[in-house]
Amino acid sequence: MSREPLIFHIDVNSAFLSWESADRLRQDPNALDLRTVVSAVGGDAQLRHGIVLAKSTPAKEYGITTGEPIAQALRKCPGLTVVPARFDIYLEYSRTLMALLSDYTPDIEQFSIDEAFLDMTSTIHLFGSPLTVANQIRERVWQELHFTVNIGIAPNKLLAKMASDFKKPNLCHTLFTHEIQTKMWPLPIGELFFVGHSARQKLERIGIHTIGQLAGCDVMYLKRLLGEKYAVLIHDYACGIDSSPVASREPANKGYGNSTTLAKDVDDMETARYILLSLSETVGARLRRDHVMCDCVCVEIKDWDFHTQTHQTTLNNPTDSTTVIYEQACRLLEEFWDRTPLRLIGVRTTKISDESYLQMSLFESEQSKKMKEMEKAVDHIRNKFGTDSVKRASFLQKDRMVDHAAGKEKHMKN
């Protein structure tokens, strides 16, 4: 007997800021909870450099937005507390969240560092009603991990993600098919997943301001306006149609990758490099964890028009180095990106081999040897003593990696 699909979307509220706050309070219970003051994660307040990666609820009252330059945010609120990002810490919190979620279903798709889809279709009957179970997960995350999440409950991934974006923070929302007309259709068109700034402007110019108006529009007309593939996609989304499955990560022996769907369109290389750095750090750490090397680096981008491009390069020698992966990813992006605003950026490594078969290159520099050993040593110390026992950021600053990103020693992700 087939069951009606049931999907949960888990979304951490202000993830980097929440994790930063939780970690500071873990180390010192009397520390300032950044979530209660006007604060942001990202960049350098003194140098007024970098971008806002996450902001507190009080910061929203000043009009501070994710993705805007730190200098601009400080003009809005000179008293803004800015703290540097510590991606190694955030990755550990992400892992603990995924481990908790695996108690409820084996069918988990980690959509980004702070988001996941759970296919609860086959396991919901073990725990209770959908809303009861979602609230149980939400409360466990707060009690055990000390940060909050929103959870969307729906029959497909698109509707679950839309539901999790309803009123925040620390809430659960449903968006079943019979609720689309009342809960989703009145929303502004810009709130529909994958409708970016450029598409929103085009739609508003022809009088489409809400998701419901888009759902009622002739798709043939939309194709002439937006292009066939993208028009069909967002019209389906507006109607609540999405057939994509919850897909676990691909087998380790095929490749290692990470991607992120951006909150705002990115059209400058500085910000893109920053994102590539965080993605490369995740990929490099996973390669080292599994004692494998990659021989190919690929960058994937997807623009507002749903146009996907990839560009890859084969390395002279297999590697598991964050530095090498990041540098190659930056070079690839420079070569093929025409600065069309991006909604998604990804880094992938393929041609995976066991590190035991790697022969040391005769042309490997002493600096690169030290870099490899340092990265492995940092991973080992963190695994044994915790992620805050060694700060990779200061190490990477010496290698001037962060000169290519949007800040100094802040932009690390394990």
Query: Which structural class fits the helix and strand makeup?
Result: alpha+beta
Number of contiguous helices: 15
* Unreliable residue stretches: 356-365, 386-414
State the order of secondary-structure elements, H for helix, E for strand. Answer: EHEEHHEHEEHEHEHHHHHEHEEHEEHH
Kindly report the name of the CATH homologous superfamily of the largest domain.
Answer: Reverse transcriptase/Diguanylate cyclase domain
Q: What does this entry show, briefly?
A:
The protein has 414 residues and is α+β, with helices and mostly antiparallel strands. The chain has helices at residues 15-27, 57-60, 70-76, 87-101, 130-145, 157-164, 180-184, 197-205, 211-215, 219-226, 228-238, 269-289, 322-336, 366-385, 392-398, and strands spanning 7-12, 39-41, 54-55, 81-83, 108-112, 115-119, 149-154, 172-174, 255-266, 292-303, 308-319, 342-350, 353-354.
Can you walk through the features of this model?
- The chain is α+β, with helices and mostly antiparallel strands.
- The protein has 3 domains: 1-175, Alpha-Beta Plaits (2-Layer Sandwich), CATH 3.30.70; 185-238, 5' to 3' exonuclease, C-terminal subdomain (DNA polymerase, domain 1); 255-404, 2-Layer Sandwich (Dna Ligase, domain 1), CATH 3.30.1490.
- The protein has 15 helices and 13 strands.
- The protein has helices at 15-27, 57-60, 70-76, 87-101, 130-145, 157-164, 180-184, 197-205, 211-215, 219-226, 228-238, 269-289, 322-336, 366-385, 392-398; strands at 7-12, 39-41, 54-55, 81-83, 108-112, 115-119, 149-154, 172-174, 255-266, 292-303, 308-319, 342-350, 353-354.
- The strands form 3 sheets. Strands 5-6-1-7-8 form a 5-stranded mixed sheet. Strands 9, 10, 11, 12 and 13 form a 5-stranded antiparallel sheet that branches. It has a 3-stranded mixed sheet with strand order 3-2-4.
- Strand 10 and strand 11 (308-319) form a beta hairpin.
- The chain is globular, with a radius of gyration of 22 Å.
- Monomer.
- It comes from Clostridium boliviensis.
- It holds the Pfam family IMS.
